[in-house]
Amino acid sequence: MKTEHHDAFLSFVQGFLLGGMIGASVALLYAPKPGMETRGDLANRSRDLKEEAEKRYEQALERAIQLKNRAEEQVAILKKQGHEHAMHLKDKAGQRMHLVKEDPPKNAEKKEETDKA
């Protein structure tokens, strides 16, 4: 699952960068400038794209960490609830066994009462 999100994010960044490059190329075709100015514009645009990609990467990483922590908390809660329920069932079974061992016919009604609880 981790690699799926990582792959999806990398695909997004690659698409983002490719789109930026295509956009810059189209802009060059329709608005020609002198070579030095064009190279400067390309360098600036590349730097901007890199900074944006780094920013989005950090945001995605932070979100992934938050989701991981939230999932771990939920697992801990469910584990605790499962343990508590298992202990409750164990205690209930112990009570029934105790009643059956004492006097099975006499305690049949008590067992039914315990079942309802």
Structure report:
The protein is mostly helical. It has one domain (2-116). The chain contains three helices and no strands. It has helices at residues 2-30, 35-102, 108-116. The longest helix has 68 residues, at 35-102. It is rod-shaped, with a radius of gyration of 33 Å.
Give a nutshell description of this structure.
The chain has helices at residues 2-30, 35-102, 108-116.
Parts with pLDDT < 50 across at least 5 consecutive residues: none
Strand content: under 5%
What is the averaged pLDDT score?
A: 81
Query: What share of residues is helical?
Result: over 70%
- DSSP strand tally: 0
Order of helices and strands: HHH
Query: How many angstroms separate the termini?
Result: 42 Å
Class from secondary-structure proportions: mainly alpha
Described by its quaternary structure, the protein is single chain
Counting DSSP H or I runs of 4 or more residues, the number of helices is 3
Shape: rod-shaped
The biggest sheet amounts to:
none
Rg value: 33 Å
* Number of discrete domains: 1
Features:
mainly alpha; rod-shaped; 91% helix; single chain; 117 residues
SSE blueprint and pairings:
Layout (H helix, E strand, L loop, with lengths): L1 H29 L4 H68 L5 H9 L1
Helix pairs in contact: 1-2, 2-3
